[in-house]
Specification:
Layout lengths: L1 H23 L2 H37 L17 H39 L3 H20 L1
Helix pairs in contact: 2-3
């Protein structure tokens, strides 16, 4: 009885690992993992662009005209309004940059799709061409 029980546990364990392996190596899971990794790296690049270039060179000088560092503004007992507003400005800038990048990629993708559609004849055109060649061949054999 103990021997049969051990085989069932081993079979369940083997089945579990086979199911897990099939799930983990499925194309969608791998694509998702790659997208998350690339998205994290891309987020770091965009954050650096905002924090190191756009904010210090463009936004901070415009907003600092008020006389003090606007990101240090505090109201009441520890409510850091400047920090919150800075986070909102960062978000808007990141969203705009992402919008422009995605829009550019979509335009490039559309151009590739149009080029591919123009280059490849449709199934009907292929069939018509084949029928025409077959007809011409049969006519030339009949003469």
């Amino acid at each position: 009885m103990a021997n049969g029980s051990g085989r069932r546990i081993r079979a369940r364990t083997t089945s579990f690992w086979q199911d897990f392996k099939a799930f983990a190596l499925k194309g969608n899971v791998i694509d998702l993992a790659i997208a998350v990794i690339i998205g994290g790296a891309f987020g770091a690049v965009i954050s650096s662009l905002v924090e190191d270039i756009i904010m210090p060179a463009i936004v901070n000088p415009l907003l600092a005209e008020a006389g003090t560092d606007w990101r240090e503004a505090v109201i009441g007992p520890g409510i850091r309004l400047g920090s919150f507003m800075g986070t909102i400005v960062d978000f808007v800038i990141i969203a705009l940059v992402l919008f422009f990048v995605i829009r550019t990629f979509e335009r490039l993708k559309r151009k590739e799709e149009v080029a591919a559609a123009v280059a490849e004849p449709s199934i009907e055109e292929k069939l018509n061409d084949t029928l025409t060649r077959l007809t011409n061949y049969l006519e030339s054999r009949g003469q």
